[in-house]
Amino acid sequence: MIYAASLQAALVLTGSFAAAAAPGLGLAPHRAIYDMELGEAEEHSGIASLSGLMVYDFSGSACEGYSISFRFVTRFQSVEGGSQVTDLRTSSHESGDGYSYQFLSKTYVDQKLVEATRGTAKDLEGAKSVDLKEPEERAFEIDKSTLFPTVHLRKIIEAAKGGESFLVSEVYDGSETGDKIYQTTTVIGEPRLERIPVKGSADASVVNVPQVTHWPVTIAYFDSTVSDGGEQLPVYQLSFLLYENGISRRMSLDYGDFVIKGSLRDLELYEEVSCSN
């Protein structure tokens, strides 16, 4: 399913609504679980229902780098009555300085492996180099201004804290065939201050974290290889509430024909590790 690879790109690109931390930003290492469901679907989408679960684990520090482990399992029900289970599993590691990035992604459909991507990328003097191992072994360069996921999220939060409402970036995360570059436009709303409500907690109470500032954020993802001379439509749009500690909730992934919504079910905060001198 094309949506699975695109969802990986959306989630990993933005730190998967979670933490792709940077020194001094105070983002929280944590494990978050989200319930995913069909928000709405056009008749021609062929989708009758969708349910799923997303588990996202972020850990690390500015010294040792940041690791993300992500799994998203969904069951589609078609209008004809058929069903399909998609299981997306990814892991990545990005250096604390944002100069190197390692990634591994596997997509299973009905327990059969249908796509695998693996490689490394690093920032060189004049460009960024990518050493791809799967789906085929090859090396290539991308523009030096292209951002890895950690740096992208950091720039969004820095822009939000600075009162900016719009950000344009090209982003690389190694998703799909490993050579996809996304042109992204991010719209940032007005800041708010609150604790973080969790769907599964009693009467929508909050996890044991202090009040933190958050912003409504929408990121539109465009295929940078497509140019038809007219107004280009995004491949998808990702909307969520982004907290300044890197945790996110109330997500919506809009593909035009259908929308997937996610609710934060459970949140576990890990002990933060500071760099030793």
Automatic annotation (TrEMBL):
Biological classification of the source: Bacteria, Pseudomonadati, Pseudomonadota, Alphaproteobacteria, Hyphomicrobiales
Residues of the signal peptide: 1-21
One matching Pfam family: EipB_like
Entry protein name: Cell envelope integrity EipB family protein
Keywords from the named record: Signal
